[in-house]
Amino acid sequence: MGFELFPPAFILLFAAILIGLVKGHARTAVLLLAPVLTLWAIWQITDGVHSTVEFLTYTLEPIEGSSLRRLFATVFAIMVFVGGLYSYRIAKWYELAAAYAYAAGAIGVCFSGDLISMFVYWELMAIFSTVVVFCGGTPGARAAGIRYAIMHFLGGVVLKIGIVGVVLNTGSVQIQPMLATDFSTWMILIGVLINAAAPPVSAWLADAYPEATPTGSVFLSAFTTKTAVLALILLFPGEPVLIGLGLFMVMYGIIFALLENDVRRILAYSVVNQVGFMVVAVGIGTEMALNGATAHAFAHIVYKALLFMSAGVVIYRTGKNKCIELGGLFRTMPITCACGIIGALAISSFPLTSGFTTKSMISQAAVDGNLMWVYMALTAASAGVFLHAGIKFPWFVFFQKDSGLRPKDAPWNMGLAMIIFAGLCLLLGIFPELLYSLLLTL
């Protein structure tokens, strides 16, 4: 078997094992080299099926390549590298191992060509993301971890019921577009939407992410919801119910983020809001819309991780996570402040940032489809995002009143990780063709 047939997810799984076996510089080398090797392996997978496995009477396709799959896997690998750089000096080895295994599950989903392989990697994500939440180490983290596990394993059961039904009805395990027209397809859609944090079961996200460690929440922000977006693109492009549901997610995230005082809960609710934009785009289902959902998922992983990194440094240095307890930190944390502002501008779709590049594609898709009510709602929602993430987060944390706190700025590795993602936010905004060239052609 050639290396081009080797599942990239296995590299991160092997790295997760090594993280617990080695120490010091060897562990650091594993943390930084494994995602680079994974990224290289991702781009060895060309379009088409590269591996098949016989299971019972079905033929599984654990490795199937396409431009869509490579793009999601690419940003996941980049996230692992920058997240590892950000975390390695303060995170416990078991948290890092769990985070890398969690990322391996996400990359495994990216290349799964059949429903059974996808389900196996899906559950791998659920297991190790739960461990990441538990690594918060507080009573609140343990309670949130239990609730998180219950919700995601329930979602896994629902998804499995749907997969079994589809397989029995069609005789096929292949991943292919479908519409929610019967019990089985509805179960698959609901199972995927649970991971997308779609209401009425979205509370798990804002409940769990702020209870993780400052480093753990960075990893949590990247994989679960965006893997669900990929699954929606592959399985339910053009599903009409997703338009209304996505708009509800957009407004829900804005309202609750505006009401929040906890820094990371603000950002967690804005994850729901931003995934709502992607769900709307999948529901529209045109080439422009699906490209918009894909591009926005890429951009969102970067700027949302950047925002969680900025918040994480503040919590790490001050031990405080409430907006009313912070303020005036720009005086001693200029790098963290500047990177947080860039992330806030990107999520607010400010011109010359990545968020503007990608969110405008979704709005254009609504216009092209004569869905002016969707366009108007998304435009209004963008203003709401600017209020809660573009203004509220950086203003209360870094400016407003002087809290009297004078913490040091980010350690060099955390600062470098933030600078990399801040630069990427600006690069994709100034040169959007870099991202456009990677998008799928439908």
From TrEMBL:
**Keywords carried by this UniProt record:** Cell membrane, Membrane, Oxidoreductase, Transmembrane, Transmembrane helix
List the InterPro entries: ComplexI-like_HydComp, ND/Mrp_TM
Q: Where in the cell is it found?
A: Cell membrane; Membrane
Q: Where is the NADH:quinone oxidoreductase/Mrp antiporter transmembrane domain?
A: 112-379
Source domain of life is: Bacteria
The way this protein sits in the membrane is described as: Multi-pass membrane protein
Q: Which PANTHER family match?
A: HYDROGENASE-4 COMPONENT F, NADH-UBIQUINONE_PLASTOQUINONE
Q: Could you identify this protein by its name?
A: Na(+)/H(+) antiporter subunit D
- Give the organism the record lists: Colwellia maritima
Source organism lineage? Bacteria, Pseudomonadati, Pseudomonadota, Gammaproteobacteria, Alteromonadales
